[in-house]
Design a protein that fits this description.
- By secondary structure, this protein is mainly alpha-helical.
- It is built from six helices and no strands.
- The chain has one domain: Orthogonal Bundle (Ribonuclease iii, N-terminal Endonuclease Domain, Chain A).
- Helix content is 64%, strand content 0%.
Length: 132
């Protein structure tokens, strides 16, 4: 994935919530691509499956699989994202799940802005694997 803009964008200088804003979209693209590549289905079913996988509970559960697998730099970004305090947490979300999902999204946004697509794929594959 080549970035369209931001050649002078330094992801280290962005807030964790800004990184999570982008990371949410990056994560969703990965989920949608995986669903589409699994075979043709009705769009309504694709949407339902995507929503199940891009919710904070699913992201928080997937994040557990990354424990001990992140570099020091990645763990720092994850920690910053987890400690960020958004202005609003959805009613249907557990606070701890929401913070962990925000951490994952911040990490995905950071890696995307760093151009580390291969690492994004690695982490996404760990998250969606059933055996880890």
């Amino acid at each position: 994935m080549e970035r369209l803009y931001g050649a002078d964008c330094n992801p280290r200088q962005l807030s964790p919530l800004t990184l999570a804003f982008l990371g949410d979209a990056v994560f969703e693209v990965f989920v949608r691509e995986r669903l589409v590549c699994m075979g043709s289905r009705p769009v309504s079913e694709l949407h339902r499956l995507a929503v199940e996988r891009v919710c904070c509970k699913a992201q928080a559960e997937g994040s557990k699989k990354l424990e001990g697998r992140l570099s020091e730099e990645e763990a720092d970004i994850f920690r910053r994202g987890k400690n960020a305090r958004p202005g609003h947490i959805p009613r249907n979300a557990e606070v701890s799940d929401y913070h962990t999902a925000t951490a994952l999204e911040a990490l995905f946004g950071y890696l995307y802005l760093c151009g580390r697509t291969e690492r994004l794929c690695e982490l996404f594959n760990i998250i969606i694997s059933k055996n880890q």
